[in-house]
Structure formats: C-alpha cells, structure tokens
Amino acid sequence: MSRGRRPGETRTRDAILAAARERFARDGYDRTTIRGVAADAGVDPALVMHFFPAKEELFTAVIDLPEDVELAIERALHGDPGRLGERLMRMFVDVWEDPVTGPRMIGLLRSAASYDAAAARLRDVFDARILRRFAEVSHDDLRSDLVSSQLVGVAMLRYVLRIEPLASAEREALIAAVAPTLQRYFTGAIE
Amino acid sequence: MSRGRRPGETRTRDAILAAARERFARDGYDRTTIRGVAADAGVDPALVMHFFPAKEELFTAVIDLPEDVELAIERALHGDPGRLGERLMRMFVDVWEDPVTGPRMIGLLRSAASYDAAAARLRDVFDARILRRFAEVSHDDLRSDLVSSQLVGVAMLRYVLRIEPLASAEREALIAAVAPTLQRYFTGAIE
To answer: N or C, which end of chain A is more exposed by having fewer CB within 10 Å?
Structure first.
C-alpha cells in the first residue's frame, strides 16, 4: 500500500484513511463524501482526490485487508497439512484479538454486512485476499467458502455481537472446538 | 404477535412494521423516527405509539424472529438425535430460501451486524429464540453458540454477501457438507 512513498505522504494518506474509516462506519457508504472525509482529516478535498480519485477507491482502500493479516494467513497456510485447521484457527484468534487489527476487522465485517452499494467491492477484496489463497490449499472453491463461513460466523458471534459464552470462551477451548471443522472443510469428506 | 387482535388492527400493525423494517434498514437505528415510520405507513404517529410506545419496542418487534421460523426450529430439534445436524441444516436452507422469510432473515442479520445502539436487544432476541432452544438440546451453551456460529457464517456468505460458489451450491451438497459440523457441535467431541 504505502510502499515506495515518502514518509510525509504516507502519514497524510493514513490520516485520510483513518478519517474515511470512521465516516464510512458512522454514516454508511451513501452518506460519506470526499469533502467530509477531507474536513475530518484536516486536508483539502483535492489532496484526498490525489490519493483516491473517487469515493469508490477510498472505500476500497478502507476495506482492504491489513497487510499483517495477509502475512498471517500466508504463514498459517504453510506447514503440515494435517494441522492446517488448527494453525488457521490460532491465526484467526490472534488477528481478531489484536488491539490494532481486531477493531479494523470488526469494522470490515460490519461494512460487509451493511453497505449494499459496496457489496461487490467487498466480495472482490474477500475473494482476492482470502478465498483465493484458501482455495490454492484446498484445491476447491466450495471448501474454501466453507472454511470462511465458519470463521465469519465465529467472528460475528464472538467479536461483533459478543454472544456469551462464546465471546468469553478460552482461546484454547475455542481453537480445539473449531479447528477440526476447518480441517475437515480443507481436507476431509464433505459429501 | 398478532394473536387475539381484530383483523383491522393486525393489518395496521403489519403496515407499521413493514414501514419500520424499511426505515431501520435504510436509515439505521439512530436516524429512524416514529414520525417518519408513521408517515411511510400512512398513519398518525399516535397510532404507531399505541402499538409501540417507543422506538425501542418498534425495533424489537421488527427484529423479532418470524413465528414460522420458531416453529421450524422446534420441529428440527425433535427426532433422532443422531440426525439433528442434518435436520437443522435442512430447516436452515428452507427458511433462508423461502421467498417471504428469506428477505426478512437477511434484514435481521444485516441489522445485527450494523446497529450498535440496538446490539443488546438483538442479542436478547437471538438468545431467547434460538440459542436457548439449541442449548436445551445440546445441554451446553458453548455448543449451542458453535452451532449458531456455523449457521450465521453460511448465511453471511451465501445469502448476504452472495459469495460464489457457496451462493449457488446445490442445497443437498450444502446440507451434506455442513450437517456433520452441526452434529459434532451438538453431540460430538469438542475439546
């Protein structure tokens, strides 16, 4: 994302993204404007448009997966195929419970559920960054979707809705309960 | 809900609920007003308040689970415990693919993900109507949450985000893939 940019540019871009993230979450996609985001970030609208020519690009950048998460997924997918489910579930809990990444992931999931106008872009990001990688490992797109369905469901109940006792379940108990599901979707019988 | 009411009252109440459902979905919880809902339903705000004394009650009625769904859950939970996962998954697909119930369930899930102010009420409904019934069968609240997590995840990917190939997967293939997960969460080893 910010590779190859000067530090000042990166800081400005990050400030714009932070303001946009807040606006989209609070006002929804339709009501968010470049002008409003620029005001919140304390910059000129033209500067926002220098980085993001249109609201659509701004939104895509906001919902893009944090780089750390991509790397974490990459690491989890490598290693003993028989323990793939466990590694992935452990990575998942780490990412969602990280004080920086967690709230961003929650925002991303909420956006995914609520912005009609942007659903197609969200699907693209989800598809390119997560599902395609899962499918390279499972060699099957349906398996890859099933893995995601279980992870998205845990994220919704544990981190977004905070439903008990799942929200307070011990990490290791959660990993032990869900890892075999992921493992079966990746490598077991599904028909 | 409408039990014991005269047909005219039921029709009015249903019209108010339909208008409210639309407003909450479009404008979010905070921006929706009793006055606006009354205008959309073509009735006086006092009449809305006759049925629903405050916005909170209106919202609770909107997000309440359709009666048919409660009955369908009840039916799925009865019978051979060894095929519980399959019955529940079959019921789930029926409910979400029903032309009337399906769109209401999608609205409910979107609300659940996006309305911060109303998240507590949503948890209550979800807890009283679904999780408590699952827990009576599984004799364990964490198991019950795990079952829900898988169902909510499939609902998000297949019906809300419409991610392929899960969105177009054959009913029976989907049931065959997911039923064993639900069955294990209900009755299998989870640690």
So the answer is: C
CATH topology of domain A7-62: Arc Repressor Mutant, subunit A (1.10.10)
Confidence (pTM): 0.84
Chain A nearest C-alpha distance from B97 (Å)? 17
Structure tokens belonging to residue A138:
């499972």
A110 closest CB neighbour out of B113, B126, B181: B113
Q: Which structure tokens are listed for A27? A: 């006002």
Q: Is A114 exposed, middle or buried (0-12, 13-18, 19+ CB in 10 A)?
A: buried
Q: State yes or no: cis peptide before A81, omega within 30 of 0.
A: no
Instruction: Check CB contact under 8 Å for A126 and B161.
Output: yes
Question: ipTM of the assembly?
Answer: 0.83
Tens of pLDDT, residues B43-71: 999 999 999 999 988 988 887 777 888 89
pLDDT at A21: 86
Residues of A in contact with B156 (CB under 8 A): 112-113, 149, 152-153, 156
Out of A127, A163, A180, closest to residue B145 by CB: A163
* Kind plus residue range of the DSSP H or E element containing A58: helix A55-63
Q: Which CATH number fits domain B7-63: 3.40.50.720, 1.10.10.60, 3.20.20.10, 3.30.70.20?
A: 1.10.10.60
Top CATH class of A67-187 equals: mainly alpha
Largest CA distance in chain A: 56
- Do A93 and A175 contact (CB within 8 A), yes or no? yes
Inter-chain touch A180–B185, beta carbons under 8 Å: no
Which residue among B114, B148, B184 places its CB closest to the CB of A157?
Answer: B148
Residues of A in contact with B148 (CB under 8 A): 153, 157, 163
**Who wins on pLDDT, B5 or A147?**
A147
CA distance A154 to B173: 22
8 A C-beta contact, residue B104 and residue B18: no
